[in-house]
Each structure stands twice: as C-alpha cells, then as structure tokens.
Amino acid sequence: MSTPAGGLRSAKWFAGQSVPGFVHRSAMRASGFSRMAFEGKPIVGICNSWSEVVNCNMHFRGLADAVRRGVLAAGGLPLEFPTISLGEQLMKPTTMLFRNLMAMDVEECIRAYPFDAVVLLGGCDKTVPAQLMGAASADVPAIVLTGGPAAPAVFDGKQLGVGTDLWEYTDAVRAGRMSMADYERLEAAAGPSRGHCPEMGTASTMATLVEGLGMTLPGSAAVPAMDSRRLQVAEECGARAVGLATEGLRPSQILTAEAFDNAITLMLAVGGSTNAIVHLLAIAGRVGVPLSLDRFGELSARTPLMVNVRPAGAHLVEQVFHAGGIPAVMKAVAPLLHTGAITVTGKSVADNLPSATATETSVIAALDSPFQPPNGLAVLRGNLAPGGAVLKSSAASPHLLVHRGPAVVFENMRDLLERFDDPDLDVTADSVLVLRSAGPRGGPGMPEWGQLPIPSKLLRQGVTDMVRVSDARMSGTAYGTCVLHVSPESAAGGPLALVRDGDVIVLDAHAGTLDVEVTDSELEQRRSALTVSQEHPPRGYTAMYVDHVLQADRGCDFDFLVGRSQHPEQEPDAIFDGWVGGW
Ligand code: FES
C-alpha cells in the first residue's frame, strides 16, 4: 500500500520510540487494538451523527458497520467517533442555531485525532453541511456518506412527501376540510421508515449537492435508506476513504469554484431547497472560494428544472433513484457543468459519468425538454434587501411573481401567532405579509418561519398563496411566494425593520427587485427613531452565536471561522515537532 508524500498523518501519533508514541500506542492497545491493527495502516475516522434524538439518522449504526467493513477490506483501520447531532424535528429552537457548533465539533475532532481520512455520516438537514464545513476547515481527506431518503409514507392510498403534504393537510384542518381524527391518522403514517425526508427537501438537496461538489461516490445520494445498495455504497465509501488517505486528496482540492458552480447547477436542476444556498455560501467561505448570491442568480438564469420531484414536481427521490439517480441528472445537465472538476474518486466529473442515463424521462428530463424553464430561483435586491433576498420562483404562484401590495407587519413570531388569525386583522389576498426578527441574530438561528401562515379567513375564501417577506428561512419541503433570507436582517438594522403597516411593497421576481415604496428620507427618519429592543442572550453558546453570526448572504457562518486555517500552531506537524523534540 502506498503512502502520501511525508507519510501517513497518523504516523505522527504512532511511530517512533518517543514517550508520546508510547502513550498513543498504549492508548490504542488499551482499547484492544494490537500494534498489527494500526501501525503503518491508514486510520479512517467514521464521523457518525447517529443519535436517538435524530430519527432520520437512526440507521447510521448499521451504515457505520458497513463503512467499517469497507475500510478493513481496503487495508485500513476504522475508528468511529461521535459528534453532536442535529435533529430537525425535535431540536429547539432550530437546528440552524447549532449548525456552526456541530461544524466546530467536527473540525476539531478531525484535527485533534490521528485520522488519515474521515467518512462523514450525515443525513438530517443540517448534519451534512455542518460536517462539510468542519471537514473543509480541517482539510484532512474526507468523503461523505449520506443516509438516503426514507421510504415514502402512504396515507389513504396516496403516497406522501412528508413535509410537502403536511403543509397542505394542515391548511385543510385549519380550513375545516379535514377532521382532527384523520389528522392523527396522518401523524401515525407520516414516518414509515428511517432515513431523511423522501422529497427534495433540504436533506435530499444537500445529499444531491454533495454529489455535485464531488465529495461522495457518484450515484450514492439518492439510494433509498432502506435499500441494501446503501449498505454496499457505505462499504465502497469506507474503501475509498483508505484510497484518499494514501493519495492525500484533500477537501480543499475538490471544493473549488467549479465544484460550487456544479453544485448550484444541480440544486437548480432538481428544484432544491433554498436552505442549500446558505449552506453552500458557508462551505465556500471555509475554503476561500469567493461565492456570492449573485452567482446563484447567474446560474439560475441558464439552468432549467430537470427533475420532476416534490416539492417542485410530482415524484419522490426514490423515483429519481430508479430513473437513474443523480448521475443521470448530471449527465443530462453536463453541458452546464464543469466536467473537468476533480472529485473524491480521484477522477473528474466526466470520468465518473460515462454510463449514466435517465431511464424515465417523465422523472429526469432531457436538457432540450425540461419540466420548467430557467429562473426557478430569483435573487432579489432593492431598498428592502440591499444585501439580497431569495425567492424560489419554481415553488411560487406565477401570478404573484410580479406583485405590489400593502404590508401587514408582524414584529416577531410571537406577534404573528397572536394576530394572524384575528378576524379583525386588516388583511386581504393582495396584502404582503411581513415577518421580522426571524433572521440569524433575530431568531436567533434564522428559523424556518418564512412560509408565513395564510390567515384562516383568507383560506376560507379560497386563497392558497400570498406574497410573504421575511428574514427567515423556509423548509425545503415548503412552497408559496415566500421571499426569504432578506439581508441585512431586521435585528441587524436592515430596512425590514423600518417597514410599517400599509407601506406598499413591490416584488418583481423577473427583474430581481424587492422594494418598499417609501422615500429614502422617510426611511432615514424612521431609522433615526428606531430602537432595537432585541434582548441579548445572557450567556453561553447562543450569546456567542448572536455576537459572531454573519448575515444570510454570507452563509450564517461565524465571522471567526471564515477562510482557510490561519493557525498553523494547531496543525499536528507543529504540535508534534515541538513535543517530540522536548522528550
Ligand atoms: Fe430529518 Fe427531514 S426531518 S431530513
């Protein structure tokens, strides 16, 4: 087996007759590993986000066992380690608040332990970007293995996409079209298996983008969680990690500007979650790739919707898998990709795709006959969002993409919950619902509140969509004409904080503009009278988060984590050179 120039990273821990070498080997032997098991072998860390409070990742112990088999078969030693995990459904107030914390946990574990490569096991929404951010910063060879989409739920004979249908059924209950008894039957049926949400929500989008970035094996993203082929892919990832360890191929060599272009193009081609925008911006920031919101707009202008999957289409990710999976999508949009980009296989995108074909054109289209034309994502700017905002046009109502209407402003989520169903609320179908204090600092954590509920009195009139504007995010499974990620957020003094009830808001998704029809001088007057009433969290992680989180247009990472590592004293070379010399 070959080793990288300079030898294996783990040799710095285990080689030599120094006291540190003794201590490290002794620690391994105390765990039951003989010297034969680890000396001179690539050590592959299995970064496992398994947790009993993260239902989507509950099958990861079995996946880790399969990774372990692959590592051993390829001549390495697998060592599994835990980090914090982020469960979208149970974790409060929002997993996004803790994405950066998990990224720090992943980064520091990878850097601090004797790993020559790592396999990142992520699934539920934020676990994948957190692992990618951490691995990008640690820059030790890494490969991602996602958990795969869960089996589809079936309710009253209809196949469900969990989140997408939940919103519809919830509106049906509120409008009096569905009984609470049926709603409870739905609750029992909604999650029939382990795995992440089965439509193209945030988890499936991120799994797809990992393939687009070149950070996982081709064809792995869409394999269903409960399909035996996912275990086979896990074995292959383990084996490939050994190859990465010996070749020394690092995330920073894969996560290039071209790789991000490819990932964004795929996100647009599958009609993916807007949450991925924030995550890609954050990952790019970790490797020093100058990615901006405008690049999303540029690529949106040329990338059509190629996959008929919910929430933008009709099918679930399982059908995408059976129609050829993400390689077939990449093959279909190959003219829009940088096919020379290097991937975790050690080969280029083009080399990875020779035999990929879409077997079902009703699921994966050809480039000359897409399901929707380009511009499925609008990047908006204007006096209401000088730093930018986004609108998933492909999931919005076409008649609302150009709209002007009076604002109905909610100060925060509590205010919204108290008033949105008030029969006396002055709101019509033409109103623009505005929510503030829902951004990175204001939430805090930029919760998924961007799909503001439509007041019941309008639902009963048959209104199914309205223009909504906020500094929040939106679930990847949600839909509607929801302007999201308004930046700077209201809690940071952005113009959203200055809007008043009745101000006319003008949205033009085609022109990429979002404005409030108030003069600059009036806005300045309002700004000088503005008092920021936001309470600062008194202590702990949340206080640090609020002090250091960047705005949505910069990926909501911490200001002190952006960029390549500037601290060579934290690298093992420096630590061991100094330490070994002193003993
Ligand atoms: Fe975990 Fe959707 S709730 S992936």
Compact description:
The protein is α/β, with parallel strands linked by helices and 583 residues long. The protein has helices at residues 11-14, 19-30, 35-38, 60-73, 96-112, 127-138, 162-174, 180-189, 202-213, 228-247, 251-254, 257-269, 275-286, 293-300, 317-322, 325-332, 349-352, 413-419, 456-460, 520-528, 540-548, 572-582; strands at residues 43-48, 77-82, 117-122, 142-146, 153-155, 158-160, 378-382, 385-391, 402-410, 432-435, 467-470, 482-487, 504-508, 513-516.
Biggest sheet descriptor: 8 strands, mixed
Return the CATH architecture of one domain: 3-Layer(bba) Sandwich
Low-confidence stretches: none
Given helix and strand content, the structural type is alpha/beta
Q: Percent range for helical residues?
A: 25-40%
| Superfamily (CATH H level) name of one domain | IlvD/EDD C-terminal domain-like
Mean pLDDT level: 94
What is the CA–CA distance across the termini? 31 Å
Count of helical segments? 22
What ions, cofactors and ligands are bound? FE2/S2 (inorganic) cluster
CATH topology descriptor of one domain: Glucose Oxidase, domain 1
Strand content: 5-15%
Strand order in space, largest sheet: 7-8-12-11-10-9-13-14
Quaternary structure: single chain
GO molecular function, one term: metal ion binding
Enzyme class: lyase
GO biological process, one term: branched-chain amino acid biosynthetic process
EC number: 4.2.1.25
